[in-house]
Specification:
The structure holds 2 protein chains of 2 kinds. Chain A is of the alpha/beta class. Chain A is built from 10 helices and 13 strands. The radius of gyration of chain A is 21 Å and the shape is globular. Chain B folds into 3 domains: about 120 residues, Rossmann fold; about 70 residues; about 170 residues, 3-Layer(aba) Sandwich (Rossmann fold), CATH 3.40.50. Chain B has 15 helices and 8 strands. In chain B, α14 links the parallel β7 and β8. Chain B is globular, with a radius of gyration of 22 Å. A 4-stranded parallel sheet of chain B has the order 2-1-3-4, sandwiched between helices. A 4-stranded parallel sheet of chain B has the order 6-5-7-8, sandwiched between helices. Classes of the chains: A alpha/beta, B alpha/beta. At the A-B interface, α3 and β8 of A face α2 and α15 of B.
């Protein structure tokens, strides 16, 4: 059996997806990155391998997410793609007439505008993580509840309170204030969902024309409160695709398939055996100029595989090969 | 008297030539680096833009190198730049430097005023010496910009990535060292030929983007994280209007005669913005409108973070009728290269797919057209 792999290594979670030759999802795995992208890629690959038939033959691999270059180097990717394109491609695969993609992940949120099957505009949060998964996790933890309970409880709200959602710091102090004056926790939670949706629409989506069909993907689409708030605010239905949390990885796999169809050469995939290799990362400060860039390097068995992080490409060039 | 001046692109090579020819003592601060930026940011009000912070870093370094007269662009009615020299003067005093900042009025745009100021700084050099020195300095500026234009064309197509950039670096050095018109001409010719001979990929017709936006961040690669080099790596050809030689040509020579290069863009922007908003805001809108009708695939709009004129432009651009994708990049000391590259990559994908879709659409139209004719 032939398959294509997509690996999405985000700041908070790592996602691996495998597609068959008809681009049907045959296996996927979702795990927290916990600050160890390399180990998690290895684990994710091993898990997905267990769910694939024994005779599987990987024909192409794509990586995406903020650690796409690191992951691509480790697994031997045929294609390394930014997360915006990957998410758009995956959304188009499941909902061909999609016009708007809302994506909220662990540390970033994006909006992608699509017209006639082509991305025409996109936006991404710049300096602020308000409204992303990490912040919701943090609030759930503070209220001593699982993120799943957060999701269910917020739906029980009857009279949501107004929370300042412009900034996580203000949102948190506002939530504490509302809780201390005696508002119900359900109303505070849903109030927070509404605030974050408002913040998203006023910042990332500002100046963008949101037209249906609207697809909402990324880990935060698990949160029923956020979904409900989006539906209310946009006054229209929102489609949550079945594998919304691994859409980036699916997009990377789809792109790898497309790439390998265009170029008939064989895959650069290093095989599932990489799950057992020891990789070592280290970093140093380059002193060649006053920029003092922090160069990170990836090595195995004393051999440097890749270096990156410089303003210029001096170190990237020396590590090539 | 020892003169110092902040960096902006290759401007220091021109000024160095001018000062050398006039026998003025000068210092060139170290090239812009993280060190310059940290130094500038340390003494800057937080909300000011990256041009302020970098130029302040340069000025402090100049003062530390013994410069007592610092040239800093300024003037009325542009944007907050009008205050920068004054604020920077105060900062220098506070940290213990006595150097004096001389404000170069970039808004007044009078050749004679500029020349008079240089004359004063050069200890009253003769008009003849002044004009000949100035001419040679300008010749260098033009040579530099001609080579940069050629580099912009070669970058996206070169087989070995970085080849054009390497030639560019050594060309800058060679032009810096040229002492007369004959050798300058020879250097320019030789480098243009070498750039022409760089082996290129066979792929015809690369994506083409226009880089527009605020003058300083467009011209100073350190402040925009080498956006043009990165676009080149992604195989995209860059064109832009803003060159220092263009600016001097108009501001020093043609504006006084009543010829204004900006009028074209201002007229194009009229349906959406009817007046100057400072900086290059008005022109940015106009550039978007004008270039949408040309054979560009997209526009990269560079703006310093907190730059009011460009924020006005950024918000007006999506409302114009002319349809061309625009990516605004806010340049700031907090900006990370990874974030910028993700956006650039996604933007280039967008342009690529959009072009493909358009071609397919045109082909269908053509096929349909020939069917109708038959």
């Amino acid at each position: 059996m032939e398959a294509y792999l997509g690996i999405d290594v985000g700041s908070v979670t790592t996602k691996v997806a495998a597609l068959d030759v008809n681009d049907e999802l045959i296996a996927d795995f979702y795990l927290p990155t916990q600050g160890q992208p390399i180990v998690k890629v290895q684990q994710g690959l091993a898990e997905v391998r267990r769910h694939l038939p024994a005779d599987v033959e990987i024909r192409g691999v794509g990586t995406t997410g903020s650690a796409r270059y690191l992951a691509g180097t480790i697994v031997g990717a045929d294609l390394i793609k930014n997360e915006i394109t990957s998410h758009a491609v995956a959304a188009l695969h499941y909902i061909p007439d999609v016009q708007t993609v809302l994506e909220i992940g662990g540390q970033d949120s994006k909006i992608i505008i699509i017209r006639d099957g082509v991305v025409t505009d996109f936006g991404m949060n710049t300096v602020c993580a308000a409204g992303t998964g990490s912040f919701l996790d943090h609030q759930a933890l503070r209220l001593n509840m699982g993120i799943e309970d957060f999701s269910h409880k917020s739906l029980d709200s009857e009279t949501p309170v107004r929370i300042a959602g412009r900034c996580t710091v203000f949102a948190e102090s506002d939530m504490i204030h509302k809780q201390q004056v005696g508002h119900r926790i359900e109303d505070i939670l849903y109030g927070l969902c509404q605030a974050l949706v408002r913040n998203y629409l006023n910042n990332i989506a500002s100046g963008k024309e949101i037209r249906p069909p609207i697809v909402f993907q990324g880990g935060v689409a698990f949160n029923q409160g956020i979904v409900k708030a989006f539906r209310e605010e946009l006054k229209t239905d929102i489609i949550i695709p079945p594998h919304h949390e691994v859409m980036g990885a699916i997009g990377a796999a789809l792109l790898a398939h497309e790439e390998m169809a265009d170029h008939s050469d064989s895959t650069k995939f290093r095989g599932f055996g990489i799950s057992d290799i020891q990789y070592r990362t280290s970093s140093f400060e380059c002193k060649a100029c006053p920029n003092l860039c922090e160069i990170a390097q990836l090595a195995t068995n004393g051999k440097v595989l890749a270096r990156w992080g410089g303003r210029c490409d001096m170190w990237e060039r020396t590590s090539a090969g | 008297m020892r003169i110092g001046m902040p960096h902006m692109g290759n401007l220091h090579i021109t000024l160095k030539t001018l000062f050398e020819r006039l026998g003025v003592d000068y210092v060139i601060p170290p090239s812009n680096s993280q060190r310059t930026l940290s130094l500038g940011a340390k003494y800057s009000p937080e909300g000011l833009c990256i041009p302020f912070k970098l130029t302040l870093g340069n000025l402090i370094e100049c003062a530390a190198m013994g410069a007592d007269t610092l040239l800093m662009p300024g003037g009325n009615g542009i944007c907050r730049l009008g205050y920068y020299a004054k604020v920077q003067q105060q900062v220098l005093r506070e940290i213990g430097y006595n150097a004096e900042i001389v404000e170069l009025g970039v808004s007044e745009r009078k050749l004679i005023g500029f020349m008079q100021m240089i004359k004063r700084l050069s200890n009253d050099a003769s008009w003849y010496r002044l004009i000949t020195s100035f001419r040679f300095a300008l010749a260098k500026l033009h040579a530099l910009d001609a080579i940069e234009r050629s580099v912009q064309k070669v970058r996206p197509a070169e087989q070995v990535k970085g080849a054009a950039q390497e030639l560019y670096t050594s060309a800058i050095e060679a032009i810096d060292g040229a002492n007369d018109y004959a050798s300058l001409k020879k250097i320019k010719k030789s480098y243009l030929a070498q750039l022409d001979a760089v082996p290129r990929q066979s792929r015809a017709n690369p994506l083409k983007v226009r880089v527009i936006g605020e003058f300083y961040v467009v011209l100073e690669p350190f402040s925009n994280l080498d956006v043009e080099v990165e676009l080149g790596k992604l195989g995209v050809e860059v064109r832009r209007t803003t060159f220092i030689s263009e600016w001097t040509k108009f501001s020093l020579f043609l504006n006084p005669l009543g010829i204004n290069e900006k009028e074209r863009y201002q007229r194009a922007a009229m349906p959406y913005l009817k007046h100057d908003v400072g900086g290059e805001g008005w022109e940015s809108v106009g550039e978007k409108v004008l270039h949408a009708g040309e054979d560009y695939d997209g526009i990269i709009h560079l703006a310093p973070f907190t730059c009011m004129p460009e924020i006005v432009a950024q918000n007006i651009m999506p409302t114009t009728q002319e349809d061309i994708p625009v990516l605004t990049i806010l340049c700031d000391e907090q900006m990370g290269k990874a974030g910028m590259l993700t956006r650039l990559e996604a933007f280039v994908d967008l342009l690529e797919r959009r072009r493909r879709a358009r071609l397919a659409c045109n082909n269908v139209r053509r096929a349909y057209g020939s069917l109708l004719r038959d």
